[in-house]
Amino acid sequence: DTGVSQDPRHKITKRGQNVTFRCDPISEHNRLYWYRQTLGQGPEFLTYFQNEAQLEKSRLLSDRFSAERPKGSFSTLEIQRTEQGDSAMYLCASSLAQTIEAFFGQGTRLTVV
Amino acid sequence: AQSVAQPEDQVNVAEGNPLTVKCTYSVSGNPYLFWYVQYPNRGLQFLLKYITGDNLVKGSYGFEAEFNKSQTSFHLKKPSALVSDSALYFCAVRDYGGSQGNLIFGKGTKLSVKP
Q: Is it the case that residue A1 has pLDDT exceeding 60?
């Protein structure tokens, strides 16, 4: 499968713990995006990378959230000191710079208990 | 500010009948418009996009969408619905002159196609 892959698919964590998610984009895509989706809502933009540079961050991305894309390939999204409100589906997407449709992974569902 | 509205939470259609899923948008400049579909426990799948050119764009699985600038709408259509089309549909917009990352999604419309 050469699509966007995310790991893990599901994560249950206790409030206050740190979690890290990984996204592997489509190999030739240099843009990578993170979105969050809660039940009954559309995806909300969190942040985006072009190669290794993080070019934009949403106001939704509090200081407990950090994302990296160290070599311009895979990306990680870390949430520190998780809260119940962080429970959501975290979606990763990638695209080519010269096209603008993004292709999404299957997401990581986070449950904070 | 950019925004997308999908006025219907759910659309019910009988198999074989035409379907329409509505979307209206608001951007400051020219819009890039998209439709995505989401099946249960799956990520979003790209269906089609409008950038410029013909107002009627064709996409995957027999879907098409009509861009109407005066009504700021981008409704998704299919001439003959299939049961397998049942899913959650999202309209999204990006401002042509705006951020290349900030794709704004609507809340989604659940399409239910009954045999």
A: no
User: Are B49 and A101 within 8 A, CB to CB?
Assistant: yes
Average pLDDT in the A58-85 region? 93
What beta strand segments (E) does A29-87 contain?
31-37, 44-50, 53-57, 65-68, 75-79
State chain A's mean pLDDT as an integer. 92
Taking only the tens place, the pLDDT of each residue in B32-84 is 899 999 998 778 999 999 988 889 999 999 999 999 999 999 999 999 999 99
**Does the distance separating the beta carbons of B100 and A100 come in below 8 Å?**
yes
Beta-carbon neighbour count of residue A19 at 10 Å? 18
- Interchain contact, B105 vs A44, CB within 8 Å: yes
Burial of A108 (0-12, 13-18, 19+ CB in 10 A): buried
- Let me know how many helices (H) and strands (E) chain B has, helices first: 0, 12
Residues A29-71 pLDDT 10s: 999 999 999 988 999 999 999 999 998 888 888 899 999 999 8
> Contacts of residue B32 in chain A, CB cutoff 8 Å?
100
**Residue A84 dihedral angles phi and psi, to the nearest 5°:** -60, -30
User: Count of CB atoms within 10 A of residue A42's CB?
Assistant: 22
Contacts of B34 in chain A (CB under 8 A): 101
Distance, CA of A98 to CA of A95 (rounded, Å): 8
At residue A2 the predicted structure's pLDDT band, cuts being 50, 70 and 90, is confident
